[in-house]
Amino acid sequence: MYDVAVIGAGIIGCSISRVLSRYKVNAVLIEKEPDVADCTTKANSAIVHAGYDAKPGTLKAKFNALGNPMFDKLCEELDVPFKRIGSLVIAFNEEEMETLNKLYVQGTINGITGMEILDKEKVLEMEPNVSEEVMGALYAATCGVVGPWELAIAQAENAADNGVEILLNNEVRSIEKLDEGYRISTTERTIDARYVINCAGLHSDAINNMVAAESFRILPRRGEYNIFDKSVGGLVNTVVFPCPSKLGKGILVSPTVHGNLLIGPNAEDLYSKEAFETTSQGLESIWEGAEKSVPNLPRNAIITSFSGLRARGDRDDFIIEEAKDAKGFINVAGIESPGLTSAPAIAEYVIDMLKGIWTDMEENQDYNPRRRRMIRFNELDEEERRMLTEKDPRFGRVICRCETVTEGEIVDVIHRNVGATTVDGVKRRARPGSGRCQGGFCGPRVMEILARELNADIRNVVKDKKGSYVLTCPTKENREQENL
Question: What is the pLDDT of residue 477?
């Protein structure tokens, strides 16, 4: 029997698992997808929010304020890209200027520092490409951008390095109460655990309802995005927000941590928790919203579009609590924005909750907070590249020209703990396919390397999800069948 089972390997489940690994605990992280960070975590704005948005007194406000300052140390320990670039909430009229003042007061109540109300001249000095119609802005110095899936992957890897078992491709089908603990039945196996932490995101309500009375509902809200080529990544220097509305923070224009430009998201409430497609109407709406803040965006520089589903809870706040009728079963649900920012603080809080239930948790004296450094060939100087390629010639073979990713890097991310097994898994770890051609050049080579390193038939290599096959049979064979 495991001591603790964590269900769901998004940013929250991975963060909790890493903190859990600081203790002498027999723990398992269970995920239904073929990889960690494979749902909401891979499709969001990647913003580390300053903390002025959340209503004072809510869990969102509490954990945003606590989580933001934790990112510097966390990302340094795990070798994850993170930049504090600041943010602007821009206003175009007196009413919106009043909203900025309210946000400033709200941020002050939440304990947020580094805020300032700027006039038009200062805004245009900071961001010359913002609309000339801007009247002013709220500047927040502590806002940042991060690699969200890279952070989740790094925490899962570090948790595994410190003893947490990670089970992918294990969808939870049922949970049964035992005299002591719970029996979790997945599509692959049966898992017994004394305590369960439910971080199942969009499906956390269904997981709760397997063992307890319904106490909350998760309502999916879709957001769509565009990513621009790095050639226009410097169009803005900070995260540029419009004034917020009831549906969210609005259409942002932001640099990414890797030097691209991102716009989005819109907000569309749905019934389906599987509606990950983009729509022409949705993408046009984010374009119109972004151009109000930053006119003359180069539409021909868009390299890809994507959408993500937010796990919006019906309480309008994070849900972090032990189920009333299931002792030792902790729900961590409704973690929408600012969930990414709040994740490190939520993880600490949940483990403190667990320690209040399981009072004899002991610290793991062998815990190592650092993971092995990532090899990023395009960030090395000439001498470092020369030494690396002399040691391993695979680092001298560039597979992805757009991002200058080498074969050696791809092999490395395949063989790490919680290594890549899919094309998108490699992309999220080492970035081949993230550039201008979106894998048009490097995709086939990535598949060949995956098949070789995993000793698999290349036809069984998938893009991301189960069944997302890229190849089915040789082209010649297809032509022969067509002629029959």
Answer: 60
Report the distance separating Cα 414 and Cα 154, nearest Å: 13
pLDDT number for residue 483: 55
Collapsing DSSP to helix, strand or coil, 154 comes out as: helix
**Beta partners for residue 167, in sequence order:** 30
DSSP label at residue 371: P
Separation CA 432–CA 418 (nearest Å): 18
Flag whether the pTM goes above 0.70.
Answer: yes
pLDDT computed for residue 330 by the predictor: 98
Dump the DSSP string for 384-438: HHHHHHHH-GGGGSEEETTTTEEHHHHHHHHHSTT---SHHHHHHHH-TT-STTT
Q: Please write the tens of the pLDDT for every residue from 244-272.
A: 876 667 899 999 999 999 999 999 999 99
Q: Which amino acid is at 444?
A: P
Known active-site residue 49: yes
Greatest Cα pair distance in the chain: 74
Residues making up the chain, counted from first to last: 484
Q: Measure the N-to-C terminal CA separation of the chain; round to a whole number of Å.
A: 57
Separation of alpha carbons 311 and 336, rounded Å:
6
Q: Per residue in 268-284, pLDDT tens? A: 999 999 999 999 999 99
Q: What is the pLDDT of residue 429?
A: 98
- 201 to each of 37, 205, 330, how far by Cα in Å? 11, 8, 13
Is residue 361 a contact partner of residue 23, using CB atoms and an 8 Å limit?
yes
Summary count for the chain: helices (H), strands (E): 14, 22
Omega of the bond prior to 338 within 30 degrees of 0, cis? yes
Tokens 């859990």 belong to which residue? 20
> Are 318 and 261 spatial neighbours (Cβ–Cβ below 8 Å)?
no
What average pLDDT does the structure give for the chain? 96
Q: 98-154: per-residue pLDDT in tens? A: 999 999 999 999 999 999 999 999 999 999 999 999 999 999 999 999 999 999 999
pLDDT surpassing 70 at residue 479: no
Cβ pair 242, 89 in contact under 8 A: yes
The sign of the dihedral angle between the CA atoms of 59, 63, 66, 68 is negative
Exactly one of 49, 203, 258, 415 is catalytic; which is it?
A: 49
pLDDT of residue 467: 87
Q: What is the rounded distance in angstroms from the CA atom of residue 257 to the CA atom of residue 148?
A: 10
Tokens of 51: 């903390």
